[in-house]
Amino acid sequence: MTSLLLVLMMQGATTQFLVSTKAGLVNYVQGSANVKAATSVPAGEVIATGPGAAVELLLNPGSYLRMGENTRVVLDRVELYDIAVRILQGSMVIETNGFNKDLPLKVTTGDLKMEIIKDGIYLFADGKVVVANGKIRDGGNGLVYTRGYEISNDQGYRTRRVKTFTTGLELWSQKRDEDISRANLAVARSLRQTQNLPVSSFLDVWLWYPAFGCFIYMPGARYRSPYGYSYLSAGQVYSGGSSVASGGSNGGGFGSGNNGGSSNGASSSGGGGGFGGGFGGSTGASSATPSAGAQAGHPSPSRQSPAAP
């Protein structure tokens, strides 16, 4: 792995402000993995996790790739708005911000070549993808699928509606977003105490926050993540804004309703997750370290036509 190449913008008493220029920064590692936190993964190199492990990668500002246990992923392209990902094995959640039909995030799983074209939450594993929230386009046939669709090509091309499910990996992904939004608020408070802040340098960037031990997202304006958590921008804070980051009203993935962003007890130290055992219909609590197949029940599919492109 290459050393992390960043531009040091400024350093305060409790916060170091750093800006990344490419996708592939390793933000968090739990358990056995072939990468280390605060390193940059070059294009074409395999990222792998072992049993019970989890890794969080940064894509463009506000977008994350979160790997479950026993997972292998390659970033084929790493420019901030020209990102291509291949999942070779296992499961991952991608939380996106800033992609659209003209600048999609491209993801390959099995024989599926998908393009994420809307902010949202997407789950991938072994030739399957579920749109928990957002909109995805099949790069092969141009069909567009919205929230609640499962697309698979492991036993021939199939699509179906999945009414509800929650995996341990998705619960952990949601809890990570909640924790990062709270860290964003802490950094915002720090910025209030900074004189002559070059605000334009802190809009829509990743910033390193030592107290959290990770990079956190500073948006360009008021922002609510796909999980429903609120973020403050440096411009808001520096102009005297009084907003606070809070749990979102739409957190928890699809089928959860307005649960106030509840993570059902998932911990930020939890890893794993995945699609083992099928897509479940459970909304129960997950363990602190959710493992593969941490879900119960089976969805009730109903065949419907995908959304029009």
What are the defining features of this structure?
mainly beta; disordered C terminus; 309 residues; 21 strands; disordered N terminus; globular; Jelly Rolls; 10% helix
Provide the fold topology.
Elements (H helix, E strand, L loop, with lengths): L1 E2 L3 E5 L4 E4 L5 E6 L8 E2 L5 E3 L5 E5 L5 E4 L4 E8 L2 E8 L1 E6 L8 E5 L2 E14 L2 E11 L5 E3 L2 E4 L5 E4 L6 H25 L12 E5 L4 E5 L4 E2 L5 E2 L2 H5 L71
Parallel strand pairs: 10-12
Antiparallel strand pairs: 1-5, 2-3, 4-7, 6-9, 7-8, 8-11, 9-10, 11-13, 12-13, 13-14, 14-15, 14-16, 16-17, 18-19, 20-21
Could you please describe the fold and organization of this structure?
The chain is globular, with a radius of gyration of 18 Å. The protein has a single domain (about 20-175, about 220-309), classed as Jelly Rolls. It is built from two helices and 21 strands. The strands form five sheets. Strands 4, 6, 7, 8, 9, 10, 11, 12, 13, 14, 15, 16 and 17 form a 13-stranded mixed β-sheet that branches. Strands 1-5 form a two-stranded antiparallel sheet. It has helices at about 170-190, 235-240; strands at about 1-5, 5-10, 15-20, 25-30, 40, 45-50, 55-60, 65, 70-80, 80-90, 90-95, 105-110, 110-125, 130-140, 145, 150, 160, 205-210, 215-220, 225, 230. The chain is mainly beta and about 300 residues long.
